[in-house]
């Protein structure tokens, strides 16, 4: 009897280590993986060999001690497989666990088995194949009778596929199909949290991302292979800003290939800021774990981890695209000390006010230093030719010289720069169009390619009505001194004008990475 009781105790102890958090808990445990994708683009191995090697790495992470406490684990976009190794994915309505079912490729069936064994919610991004046509889709099919999708697959702790989201806003991605309309995919968990999910470039649009938030979803799963861009759209920068504005928990897992601009992983607790995040200068595969406070438990303690912060010289190896800021209206920040500098700028129907208190660290030197321009835009841009978007923004951004062409660029190869401008405080204010078709957020990034911490800023919005139309008055403040800013902005999107033929895309010197990014995107899912 003693032996039986001892065995039962051992069983209970082991089983308890795999218990999910409960609905009563104030927190849940999440893991996000920054996964090196360099091998995918440089390997000479067959697609099947690559997938087998990647699957082994996925399994190693899932089976690692660091993953033991997790309730949910998220892998990034575009690291698992490719079109040649695409897999069928069960319809979640069928409540199928594809474990050991040979209809599905190993990347799907093996991870289903492992999710069940580890009693873990698991989110994996795969290239999915599906029979064509599907119900409600009257578009012509490919000659092989298959569609291919960039798909998030969600396994529950039994290995059952409980959610499947197909990316709607593609960033190139030759050979990949979209659904007829954007899917709004959510799934419930046993620990009392309902998640929504979308992928990478979806973040830039109203559908499906913001529609999920407006429906009441408070926790978002976000696999991505982001191509970072100065001065407003580097990976962690936009992840934190999006989570802050929507006050949602965001679990972002990023593919890691800094040589083409891809990195950016983190867990964000809405307006409480990032719990853990990383912007890498070298390709990395690593699991990041966080205790996530539930949004409806404001009293829950938040346990932020020390920021992983690299120097500007180290981050020089991270390639960064450049926004089309040549279309912005700008004004130089004077290279002379004043008590408080104030200025106003207008572009089209948008006007913004700038109030800046800054010191100069010393006299002008022959050593390189960043100058700054105040800037405003109410106009359209292209996202590397894959889509157009209407931008509305007021900003201060750094320049390596005196001309606009030198802005949103960096001094290269670890130049020994002097921090000439010390910003004691910045206040940006403006009256922007309101309503659901406009999305605005606080935006900032420093020389380590990380956003400012939430306690370094103050951001407020007040909805007003003018002539029967909605507007929003926004104030964004820097409240702690900084001498390492690349940008500080109110930045946003006007979705209703994305397709406006009268809103011209500005001519730009473009990005030095445009050709490389286009090439990567064209082979991403082959």
UniProtKB/TrEMBL annotation:
InterPro entries: Biotinidase-like_euk, Biotinidase/VNN, C-N_Hydrolase, C-N_Hydrolase_sf, Vanin_C
One Pfam entry name: CN_hydrolase
GO molecular function: hydrolase activity, acting on carbon-nitrogen (but not peptide) bonds, in linear amides
Keyword annotations from UniProtKB, A to Z: Glycoprotein, Hydrolase, Membrane, Signal, Transmembrane, Transmembrane helix
Claim: Transmembrane helix is one of the keywords in the record: yes
Organism per entry: Culex pipiens
Top-level division of the source organism's lineage: Eukaryota
Protein name (database record): Vanin-like protein 1
Residue ranges constituting the CN hydrolase domain according to the UniProt record: 28-294
Family: Belongs to the carbon-nitrogen hydrolase superfamily. BTD/VNN family.
